[in-house]
Amino acid sequence: MVSERRRLPIWGLMLMLAAGPLGAAELSLADKLDLLVKSYPDSLASAAGGRLHFKDGSEMAIDDGRTKSHAEALADADIEDMLSQIYPMGPCQTRPAVNFDPGRIRVDALFRRLYGADKQQVRRRLVKINWFGAGLRVNPAQGAAEALRRVQAELAALPARLRKPAMKSAGTFNWRLIAGTKRLSVHSFGAAIDLDVKYANYWRWSGGKPGNVKNYANRIPLEIVDIFERHGFIWGGRWYHYDTMHFEYRPELIAISRALGNDACR
Ligand SMILES: [Zn+2]
User: Fold this and answer.
1) Ligand 1 centroid – CA 193 distance (Å)
2) Ligand 1 centre from 144 Cα, in Å?
């Protein structure tokens, strides 16, 4: 369990309100769950009584009641942990604090429900989208493939020098574990894309260790990031444990970011 509501004294609340948009920087877990349910319309029906309810009548617990370190939350997340770090969005780079990895805390079991339970199930669902002349296999569930199609159309309208790192993809669907972990990558579900590896920075490649990574100079234009985010994708360049060619479809985190006005440019 990660604390959701910071209880503020009245003066704290007044300060927040005086500070403008920051005054909205409170969302209850119920509000976040509401955005989660709306973000995955193919599968989720509601969140009530401490459970996520799926359209097929099945359920999943929201909070296991455990307090976790960042490493523990990554290794064994519940739904509440998954929504605990608020993703910043907008065409500006952010310098994440140690272990601020919004989106890396994921519940594998949820993704298996949203996109396909195993490699074969996911593979059967994939559709091909055109990516600057190449065919990429993406999962149409939850609107992911359609969102990536819209991203490509907008990228195509960027000036050539800006869109270059996006024109070649290093991959979408790939049923595999995240390096150094027992957790499935979102590539397993066909709901993530890697851009041109030539422009990529990845914390492991630069000799980083969990909780202790090296600095890097980002080479992915923020115009590209902005387009992906506006269509429901989060960017691995906003993680302390960065992966700058990586974008994954996480409309719930984008919706929560929008609701809170968590502007990367502020
Ligand atoms: Zn990736």
Assistant:
1) 6
2) 15
Among 236, 216, 213, 215, residue whose Cα is nearest residue 224: 236
CA of 246 from ligand 1 middle (Å) equals 4
The pTM (predicted TM-score) of the whole model is 0.90
Span 119-142, average pLDDT: 98
Q: Which residues contact 248 (CB under 8 A, 6 or more apart)?
A: 103, 186, 191, 192, 193, 233, 234, 236
As a whole number of angstroms, the distance between CA 157 and CA 244 comes to 21
Distance 243 CA to ligand 1 centre (A): 7
Neighbours of ion ligand 1 (CB under 5 A): 194, 246
> Domain extents for the chain?
10-260
Q: How far, in Å, is the centroid of ligand 1 from the Cα of 68?
A: 25
Residues in the chain: 266
User: For the segment 50-97, what is each residue's pLDDT rounded down to a tens digit?
Assistant: 999 999 999 999 999 999 999 999 999 999 999 999 999 999 999 999
Instruction: Give me the DSSP letters along 119-149.
Output: HHHHHHH-EEEEETTEEEEE--GGGHHHHHH
